[in-house]
Amino acid sequence: MIPITTFENSKVALFGLGGSGLVTAQALKQGGADVVCFDDNSDRVKQASSEGLEVQDLRDLDWSGISALVLAPGVPLTHPVPHWSVDLARNAGVEIIGDVELFCREHRKICPAAPLIAITGTNGKSTTTALTAHLLKVLGLDVQVGGNIGTPVLELEPPIPGRHYVIECSSYQIDLAPTLDATIGIHMNLSPDHLDRHGTMENYAAIKERLVAGSRFAVVGVDDRMSSAIADRLEMARKPICRIAGERELTEGVYVRHGRLIEAHDGSQVEVALLGGIDSLRGDHNGQNAAASFAALRALGIPADKIAGAMKSFPGLHHRMEIVAKQGRVLFVNDSKATNADAAARALSSFDRIYWIAGGRAKSGGISSLDEYFPKIAKTFLIGEAAEDFAKTLDGRVAYKISGTLPQAVIDAAAEAAEDGAEEIAILLSPACASFDQYPNFELRGAAFVDAVRALPGAGNTQEVA
User: Fold this and answer.
1) In terms of pTM, does the model score above 0.90?
2) What distance in Å separates the CA atoms of residue 310 and residue 39, rounded to the nearest whole number?
3) Which residues form the domain of 56?
4) Nearest by Cα to 197 from 340, 77, 89
5) pLDDT > 90: what percent of the chain?
6) How would residue 457 be classed by pLDDT, with cut points 50, 70 and 90?
7) Is residue 317 part of a domain?
């Protein structure tokens, strides 16, 4: 844990006592702050009290003596309406921050030289975070990885010279980190997501841009228009920047072409890594991920050949294009983390013959944007709340069946794939939806997919890959 000493002898209010909230409260307490906590969930309040934290309804608090409100990232800051704790803090003129901001302040105070790589984007940020951390570890460096990817940032080990931090940042976390100042900031891409929390696409994009704008060196994906505009603005502001791409050739930057990672600089185009044959980096989207990690390590001064060698052992990210089993010609692919259409597009583009499991709680736009991939889909098996609406989109264009549940969809897909004579077949869970109609999170949805695969008849002849 990282004790937060920047609020020593100050009184801090904290709202949101989920996993990261409890860690944040303890980190503040260990650093000498007087912390008072609350949550709308009474069970969480009881848990915090049992762990020795002071709990009090913040509506009864004297805000005149409060130095900051530390807000959990899942609590609405602006949209659809600010949470009541936000209104109280603003009315009292109290700053509102989150755990990433606390980390940045402590990092600056005790060891600003410890490299901090912060990563954001609509899609690909988790894989890029995992890949960047993997490369640094393989190269023998001291690495701490956390943030939105899983481990709360304040649960990591404290900054010391030579220790590298690789932190995934969601838009929620960036919105609560006004002084986020990464050594290297990575922005992957933008597509509509979380608009219920940010109001408009323009506001969402502006929040994402803060991460790279505040960094010492920026790595920016330019495969989409809005992200390319971010790169142009940073360059005009004379920010040191490296453009990356998975779908287009660059004259300056790092990009992927036909499975080859290319470093372009001063008119030269040098192949620096071959991604073909690395299953965990399959597809154009993973080309962008590899380009981002490569560019970040190059900015740290690490030689290209060492980075390329370390990429070969990357195991991939759980629930993201994860080949979990193989039965003859059939691959079972867990892409449960694809919670929107743009993320699902990345998986659909990576296979040629697909039995697609899709559905859940739909996000804005549904799956109509995926029509260019429909010719790859042998049949779709629909689950969850979105099944009926998705069926309307697919009707007359892609064969489909409403399976209803994930275990049934796996059974249905496996039965039909067994009759398919294609050289390689992917039974692909890439829902293009949130999980909340049937599962608490995408991780449990992915685990249910793996369990369903293991329960198939003849599973004893199935090679488990992950």
Assistant:
1) no
2) 43
3) 5-97
4) 77
5) 83
6) confident
7) no
